[in-house]
Amino acid sequence: MIVGVVKETFPGERRVALVPDHLPPLKKKGFEAIVESGAGADAGFLDAAYEAKGAKVLPTRKDVFEQADIIVQVRSYGANPEHGGSDLELMKKDQIVIGAAEPLSSPALVAELAKAGVHSFGLEIIPRTTRAQAMDILSSMATVAGYKAVLWAAERLPKFFPMFMTAAGTVAPAKIFIVGAGVAGLQAIATAKRLGAVVSAYDVRPAVKEEVESLGGKFVEMELETAEGEGGYAKEMDEDFYRRQREMMLKVVAENDVVITTAAVPGKKAPILVTEEMVKGMAPGSVIVDLAAERGGNCELTKVDEVVEAHGVTILGPSNVPATLPYHASQMYSKNIFNFLSNMLTKDKEKRFDLEQEDDIIEATWLTKGGEVINESVKELLAKQGGQD
Ligand code: NAD
Prior knowledge:
The protein has about 400 residues and is α/β, with parallel strands linked by helices. The protein has twelve helices and 17 strands. The strands form four sheets. It has a seven-stranded mixed sheet, sandwiched between helices.
């Protein structure tokens, strides 16, 4: 099978879907790589590096689409609505297209992929099972986001993170509060601890307490019912719950120099957990990094991709955070892709490429086939919107 790597076209996207180091192991499994010239340049992977690892570099995107059996992307059409559409005319019938596709928020674009006749796969809806973890782009990219959020906060805060005892006096460590201790939140805790801050965290899922403590953070207890939903995710709560949560968080937020919010419920708008009143209660110079900004934001004052200064507090609402650390984000994404492709080989001795084999990961992520949308959740969404046409 020939795997084609194309340059990302989403504005500001600097990642690449496959890095040179993963090409030799892919070759061993029967996958040859072709690469659009310049595809990895923004992430630090030059054409020569791909060639050195056995890839053929082709001058245009069209060449890659023409020759590849499988196209791998960081953002395929659904996750790149403004620019991804121009790839539709380059796609071949039965070509396999793998990448983030935001199928549950862009179902109409999935229907367009179906019309292009391709087998498209949306990596965000991979099952959250132990076996799928090595292919889980949400996990790997959340790791990048949690790390980066702490660095941004440290850079903006007019204070040190660690405690210092110097001849010029003793400096108390910064206090950081993390709201939502999923993958990004846990990485934020670990990073803030490494920088020497005093870290506390809260999550609605009870299982998280132990994880927070194992990273050296303090779990903030709140008298709220727990809210574990399906697949280890949080479930959506009613407005009364969020109101009580905000009341309990008011004092905690005021006591901290930095608040990093990552709270999300899959398929829903992120809950507002930090109100303007809470921002007012923070000391001047405090920083909020709202990693839920793209999903509506956890802070009432967040503006996506803007730096908001309000009541002496700086509020950052960055989007597409993994693209700001493109080298390692690409390396992790590429490993997810490598594992995803490897999983498409049969599990017997033959190791044939076979999409039709019985496999829950292939089944869950497969969006379009034979001109139709085949994913049940996307089909339901399309039906609600008035059909596929
Ligand atoms: P996410 O991005 O959907 O949400 C981030 C966090 O916000 C979650 O921990 C959630 O519980 C929390 N949250 C939601 N509402 C909140 C509220 N009102 N207040 C405080 N916190 C709130 O989640 P995620 O980081 O992608 O992962 C969530 C879970 O899935 C974790 O348990 C993680 O370990 C698990 N997971 C499993 C796999 C796997 O097994 N393959 C892969 C990735 C993640």
